[in-house]
Design goal:
CATH topology: Rossmann fold
Mean pLDDT: 95
Structural class: alpha/beta
Low-confidence stretches: none
CATH architecture: 3-Layer(aba) Sandwich
Strand content: 5-15%
Number of helices: 4
Bound molecules: nicotinamide-adenine-dinucleotide
Largest sheet: 4 strands, parallel
Amino acid sequence: MSHPLFDLSGRVAMVSGGASGMGRQMALGFAEAGADIVLADLNLPGAKVTASEIESMGRRALAVVCNVSDIAQIRSLYRAIDDEFGRIDIVGNVAGEGHLGRPEELPIEKLQEVLQNLVVGRFTSCQEAGRWMLK
Ligand SMILES: NC(=O)c1ccc[n+]([C@@H]2O[C@H](COP(=O)([O-])OP(=O)(O)OC[C@H]3O[C@@H](n4cnc5c(N)ncnc54)[C@H](O)[C@@H]3O)[C@@H](O)[C@H]2O)c1
């Protein structure tokens, strides 16, 4: 139920990892507060399940396949958001793959994957959204 102190009606939120876990809960929470939602995930069928729940709440939802480690895919995600909604107000960069392991054993390639995913990908997403917001 939308609360007057936290009313996101007319706003558009992008949530990565919206097919499951924390991203899914974040997307449902923003939709409850009135926002339309873009779900970006590797798991398209899962993102579509979340999208149909959001639509049943009376909001618009768009499920997009996007690997958040891939800069070209993130840029194309924001083009799709612009085509479909013409605005972006909220960015939830939730998707990511951390690696748990002993530092003395961690292959540097794994560290580079994590940095690409959690740092470069999230920065690119914020940069793309920020450009649209400034416009
Ligand atoms: N659950 C926790 O307690 C917790 C705590 C701290 C950090 N995190 C981090 O938060 C993130 C989400 O956690 P969760 O528990 O919701 O995980 P989850 O596995 O339930 O959900 C992750 C979602 O992200 C998607 N995804 C994974 N890699 C992707 C990629 N490269 N591009 C696009 N989508 C991708 C998956 O398909 C999945 O839908 C993870 O990075 C996790 O390491 C989780």
